[in-house]
Amino acid sequence: MALTQFIYIATGFVSAFIAVFIILAFLNGKWKERPHRLSWAAFVTLLLYWITVLTQVYDLFPFDVGNFLFDLLWLSSAILCLLAAWKESKNNQAVAWFLAGISVISLLFGFILVGISGME
Fold first, then answer.
1. Residue 70 contacts by C-beta under 8 Å, 6 or more apart in sequence?
2. How many other C-beta atoms are found inside a 10 Å radius of the C-beta of residue 9?
3. Which residues contact 100 (CB under 8 A, 6 or more apart)?
4. Interval 57-114: pLDDT, tens
5. Which one of 85, 93, 101, 102 has the largest count of C-beta atoms within 10 Å of its C-beta?
6. By C-alpha distance, which of 43, 46, 21 is closest to 31?
7. Distances (CA, A) of 89 to 72, 83, 86, 92, 102
8. Where are the transmembrane segments (predicted)?
């Protein structure tokens, strides 16, 4: 298993672990307001992106198409999470920090993958 795949798997498990705690806190009534739908959509989008990376769906496409899809989905999901975190900061700080954290992690690892794939 490559190092980048291990990093993505570890990040996915940490994010799922944090998501479980957020859902449990919501079910126990520790928040006054529910998270916005944009926050849920952003998290699901980023989670689906990670699943497609880990299952290597991009290898099914030709090289140029796979790289284009990878970059497009990576940037759009990370920016969507940052926008959702900014909107959620007025509603729930915990959800906003969670979304901002996973978005920054995704951006950093995405930049690392783009840098590694550019080396020849």
1. 53, 58
2. 13
3. 81, 82, 85
4. 888 888 888 888 888 888 888 899 999 989 988 887 778 878 888 888 888 777 777 7
5. 102
6. 21
7. 26, 10, 5, 6, 15
8. 6-27, 39-61, 67-86, 95-116
Would you call 91 helix, strand, or coil by DSSP? coil
Q: How far apart are alpha carbons 94 and 112 in whole angstroms? A: 27
Nearest CA to 102 among 54, 50, 56? 50
| Domain spans, the chain | 3-118
Whole-model pTM: value is 0.68
pLDDT in tens, 11-42: 777 777 777 766 766 676 656 677 888 888 99
Distance CA 48, CA 78 (A): 12
Which one, of 113, 120, 119, lies nearest residue 6 by Cα? 113
pLDDT band, residue 115 (cuts 50/70/90): confident
